[in-house]
Amino acid sequence: MDMLFIKLEKNQDVPLYEQIYDQIRRDITNGKLPIGMKLPSKRKLGDFLNISQTTIEFAYAQLTAEGFISSKPRKGYYVQAIEELAYVQPVELAAKSIRRKKEDVSIDFSPGKIDTESFPFTQWRKYAKDVIDESSQNLLLLGHPHGDSQLRQEIARYLYHSRGVDCTPEQVIIGSGTEQLMPLVIRILGKQATYAIEDPGYPLTHHVFYHNDRKAIPIAVDEEGMDVRALQRSGATVAYVTPSHQFPTGTVLSAARRTALLNWASAQDEHFIIEDDYDSEFRYTGRPIPSLQGMGKGGNVIYLSTFSKSLMPSLRIAYMVLPPVLLDRYEKAFIHYAATVPRLDQHILARFMADGHFSRHLNRMRKIYRRKLQVLTEALSTYAPHISFSGDEAGMHIIITVHTTVSEETLVELASAANIRVYGLNGYRTTPITGEPSFLIGFGGLSVDEITSTIDTLMASWQIEKGTESN
To answer: DSSP string covering 83-146, please?
Structure first.
């Protein structure tokens, strides 16, 4: 087995080895880990959970002693049959699990939500109707494995004019999401590659490295983005970055570090940068930040982006731009692969872009999100000096810092008690830190009219009153 999903609460009184033991035992009891399945090695699970092997060893030893797993010399640990254990009650445990997952959330500050009310349904419906027609019978067959040429041409044209990305349509690969494209990139980069990841950073992408058994080294992020000097010392060969709007902190990779990062990549043939440009369309102050792919001329940058923020998450269309040296490897490695995005959806989007609707939609959404951001920052400003915020130059979320001695976990619980879901910054770190708590506040899915009241409700749950400056 590649890995186990185990949630650890490091601030609880329950020892970590006991939490691991409880969760593995419960999964075996419920049949989620079938008989005979091999568990991850102590080293791999320890690295994945960022804890010591000794902790894993204690948990495995207890599971072995109780007969849930068995140890085979030089082979590993395997799940054992448990039919004869009288106290096992999987149905009751499953029911408890289901009840626990049902949460009554009235306010959700998720950074992943978009403004669904402003989607251009009329135009999209028109193109869908035109494409889904008997004259488009050829679209029922498999197309080019990299994606249909019409959409790749539109993406290449859009990237050049909006992001300065210099590429041909042949370099564009269409996929059904960043999490689907990333494993393909990892495979063509080879098992010898070592990855540097931003800390804090995007958890889903980080899990891809672990699930594919690739070494990933956390590199700290500060007010100028990823620490390139730490990257240089790390021994990594591939750097995964979100330079134009770092997720989740919202910082922009400084000009000096951009140059240093590109120099690092060009210093050796097998050094590469994975540039995830996930929400570059929404920048509200200053000039657009140029892409690293456009700045670097050595062909060492892999460019990734998606239509999840700009159009809709459910569209499931993302893309990557491969440098020529990797494009050749990709074609040889995945010659038998088919495109993972339906051709009908590809052609709807291609026509939508070709006729200028995509650009007009982006312009309209920038104005809408800029207005939401203005209302949000005005609402937060009334709680100064108890609250400060950053990362308000781009994207659809900002970071707020609460100037208090109360822990991040406690504030999350207080908000949850008020049916509010907030996202602590520690949840995006490989190792949680102490200090003043910070949170991601997504505003994309909130209406302009409700933003102020939702902030007031959140602050009330934290017993934070408005500052004297707002009176």
So the answer is: TT-TT--HHHHHHHHHHHH----SEE--TT---GGG--HHHHHHHHHHHSSGGGGGGGS---TT
Are 171 and 322 spatial neighbours (Cβ–Cβ below 8 Å)?
Answer: yes
Contact status, residue 114 vs residue 312, Cβ threshold 8 Å: yes
Three-state secondary structure readout of 249-296 = CCCCCCHHHHHHHHHHHHCCCCCEEEEECCCCCCECCCCCCCCHHHHC
Residues 59, 71: Cα–Cα separation, whole Å:
13
* Beta-bridge partner residues of 172: 321
Give me 237's structure tokens.
């060969």
350 CB-near residues (< 8 Å, 6+ apart): 148, 150, 151, 153, 154
Distance CA 231, CA 274 (A): 14
Please give the DSSP secondary-structure letter assigned to residue 34: -
For residue 320, with 0-12 CB atoms within 10 Å meaning exposed, 13-18 middle and 19 or more buried, which class applies?
Answer: buried
Q: Rounded distance, CA 181 to CA 4, Å? A: 22
pTM of the model: 0.77
- The residue assigned the tokens 């080895």 is 17
pLDDT by residue (tens digit) across 334-368?
A: 888 888 999 999 999 999 999 999 999 999 999 99
Q: Are 39 and 1 in contact (CB under 8 A)?
A: yes
Distance between CA 80 and CA 72 in Å, rounded? Answer: 12
DSSP 300-359: -EEEEEESTTTT-GGG--EEEE--HHHHHHHHHHTTT---SS-HHHHHHHHHHHHTTHHH
Determine the Cα–Cα distance for residues 265 and 253; give it in Å rounded to an integer: 15
